[in-house]
Known about the structure:
The protein folds into 2 domains: 8-320, Queuine tRNA-ribosyltransferase-like (TIM Barrel, Alpha-Beta Barrel); 331-420, no CATH class. The chain has 17 helices and 16 strands. Helix 10 packs parallel to helix 11 (279-289), helix 12 runs parallel beside helix 16 (380-406) and helix 16 runs antiparallel to helix 17 (409-420). Helix content is 41%, strand content 17%. The protein is α/β, with parallel strands linked by helices. The strands form 4 sheets. The chain has an 8-stranded parallel barrel with strand order 4-5-6-10-11-12-13-14, surrounded by 6 helices. Strands 1-2-3 form a 3-stranded antiparallel beta sheet. A 3-stranded antiparallel beta sheet has the order 7-8-9.
Amino acid sequence: xxxxxxxxxxxxxxxxxxxxxxxxxxxxxxxxxxxxxxxxxxxxxxxxxxxxxxxxxxxxxxxxxxxxxxxxxxxxxxxxxxxxxxxxxxxxxxxxxxxxxxxxxxxxxxxxxxxxxxxxxxxxxxxxxxxxxxxxxxxxxxxxxxxxxxxxxxxxxxxxxxxxxxxxxxxxxxxxxxxxxxxxxxxxxxxxxxxxxxxxxxxxxxxxxxxxxxxxxxxxxxxxxxxxxxxxxxxxxxxxxxxxxxxxxxxxxxxxxxxxxxxxxxxxxxxxxxxxxxxxxxxxxxxxxxxxxxxxxxxxxxxxxxxxxxxxxxxxxxxxxxxxxxxxxxxxxxxxxxxxxxxxxxxxxxxxxxxxxxxxxxxxxxxxxxxxxxxxxxxxxxxxxxxxxxxxxxxxxxxxxxxxxxxxxxxxxxxxxxxxxxxxxxx
Length: 427
């Protein structure tokens, strides 16, 4: 679809060729390493992959200026179709010239389809999808879990989803066609097909039915995307990524990858619920089936071990709200783990968050000042720590990309993870 557009993906170096993993490393990974570098070209600039994409859910990275995101090295930002559809409305962003112009971000932008929020908020779980009512992570066979004390606000059928706004309770309808219409108005460079998000608690039978529903929705998304691309030919081309579901079933994940991989998508999103310990295995199931010449985006991860696992198994880009979310609770990232800035020991600590860190926060402010801001409940606290946490995450992935190119990926992984998870100490 993108052959005549300004969107493309150029493969770079492959991890298995530059780093030459040992037989033991390959065996531990469960198969051949799929990691690689590349360049995603969009109407608003290039993204060198692997890359971490900062999340600006409502057309803003919480508490951080777009200019600060650019300065710390972010290559692209992701916003959420569900939230922007409800407020201020996709028509407002369309009139403004698209997401990037609306939020004063000149670089590439992503929008996810809103499916995650429709399902998670619709079940009363807010920021995360519940895996089981009892808090466990093994399927129980239940297919309609709702958070305790909440009513179900989202109802799925084969045509789409009815849901109530979490803001005011108004009733809305999302179908594949409506999701495409909303995202075309939002105007991001990369958008995602509308899919049904399942959880680990859903039965095998429901996962199968849902996967087929998502496959049929993907076809409808492509058809509507083609129509809107022709209708809005005066607008920059928007790439469409298909989203793979299938929970933790190998046959379903591979089927989803084969089914969507055969369609005319510009790239792919790896979504759905999974247990952390199975992350690499599930990504590899997908990437082994997907076309090699199209980018893969992993939705919702940012922990250092998850990033390395995802990269070595073939994911190209990632997004997560965690760097700014934990920053608002006074947590900051260091090479030795995550640390809580509210500890009393930092009241008179006039050193930066991390010695030698070149981010704006570390080169201008001290732990003592930031400790004071949190104690005083000043908004600037979230801004300054968010800048540091985003810088840490963006640059960790940048380091991994450079390590693939120069053949030192496995050495970098061992050094970074050994230090980060070796026991947090004062930075």
